[in-house]
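Blackboard transcription, Thursday session:
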Amino acid sequence: MDVSKKKVLEQTALRIRKAVIEGTYHAKSGHPGGSLSIADVLAYLYFCEMNVDAAHPDNPNRDRFVLSKGHCAPALYGALALKGFFDESEIQSLRHIGAMLQGHPCMTSTPGVDMSTGSLGQGVSAAVGMALAAKFDGKDYRTYAILGDGEIEEGQVWEAAMFAAHKKLDNLCIVVDNNNLQIDGSLEEVNSPYPIPEKFEAFGWNVIVIDAHDFDQIEEAFTAARACTGKPTAIIQKSVKGKGVSFMENQANWHGSAPNAEQYEQAMNELNSALSAMKEG
Amino acid sequence: MSEIIKKATRDGYGAALVELAESKPNLVVLDADLAAATKTGAFKKAYPDRFFDCGIAEGNMMGIAAGLASTGKIVFASSFAMFAAGRAFEQVRNSIGYPHLNVKIGATHGGISVGEDGATHQCCEDFALMRSIPGMVILNPADAVEARHAVFAAAAWDGPVYLRFGRLAVPVIFDDSYHFEIGKSVRLTEGNDVTIIATGLMVNEALIAAEALKSENIFARVINMATIKPLDKQAVIDAAVETGAIVTAEEHSIFGGLGSAVAEVVCEEKPVPVVRVGVEDTFGKSGPAAELLKLYGLSSENIIKKAKEAIFKKESM
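(Written on the board underneath:)
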């Protein structure tokens, strides 16, 4: 990836992270940890990979995106706002009464949201349905979904994985955000789904393991997914929960709690300094 | 009297899907390894490219249905009522109901008349579950003719619809001139002593009961309530006002189904005695369907008894 492209993506990811902090702070609730770990992949999906246009959110030929780990909506909203689906000021009303931005993605209230999600394990099935529809209609749009690593403890994920491989849905690409932390602790402590790549391989998927915060690897993975035929692709991205905010990194307790005023200041300072450093550099 | 023709409502469902397919090219059918039993097999044979077997994974099937519907398909997703409404309840609620997607849940083998398979497969809770989902339409046809109409109406409806069909062959009571409309009940007999509001295979039992009551000079109004939700409230209120006593009859738990829906309207709008015929607070068991129906009180005899009870309550008020 050329340097200038990477720089733009890194800035975009920082802006998504700022939206995560902004949204959860004003909502006084939400899920910053897992939202921060998917900021980079969302930046790549919305600004490099996917064919989506805020001016035509219902274009039947658009690529589809399903946030199966729906609790990380603040990151998705950040990406959608930056992409122009709605005004960035909406972020501050996240989770408020009457707000367009619900606590979990709602396709009937938010432009750009392709599927309502939040109950873990369900979004991926809908993504499979979308990919199946593309094959049925002879359309070449692709469908993407992001799942949590804890989410794959849900049996429905494997029902969906079995079906997608059975139907050879090579137009489907899922990302498993492997930050290794779920609400009650680490994956190993709670109910280990490891080894993850082998499980998807056994289900007949094309599997790619990457560093979630390295845009070169992200680009290579999505390029390889496009090139793969006859199989759906699972990108297992090794990520850092809370990535980009020092005191949130690798802390399970930042899964579902919002920053207070002081923490908000610190987080925004860190993200703003990173942005400024990038602009100067 | 002409010979009684019997046909299961699931047969009406399967045939209607095939009939609809040509005029609705965006209609697709999903099943969960039960195509022979749910009768979607006929569609599978006629339109193999538009049929997707999801295997024994009902939760995933409902999610796939949601994804397909989000791209503009009319999706019929089929399984037994127990698994469609029961096992996949939360997928139906969150992936279909909440985004109000155009998925039609074709749930066969509803109720106790599943028969020999026994309690694990006898779903008497589906109305209660589906009624609690905002925006869900619930249709429960009384015979194969009405089943066909219900499928057509569901396909034309914008939004989620739960259709319940039975395994057992039941008398065909409507002819080709029958008119079906979602949310509108049909008055089958006139009478002002008591109203029997019935649904599904209990409609025929209600007609038999009304005929028998006539010989005792009791004139019952029989209403076919094929739409459980949205309920035809006006018909219920009219029944309360004009007959003063109501019996409900359904092949479903007395909790949360038609009886509850009618009682809710009656209590709020025009309190009169409501007596419910349905499966009491118990699970089913194995046995021939006809015998089970009698055992659990899903019979004309029980409707007659309850009608008299309702009238007695009315007169005691």
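Lecturer's comment: Chain B touches chain A at residues 28, 49-50, 52, 54-55, 57, 59-73, 90-91, 94-95, 98-100 (CB under 8 Å).
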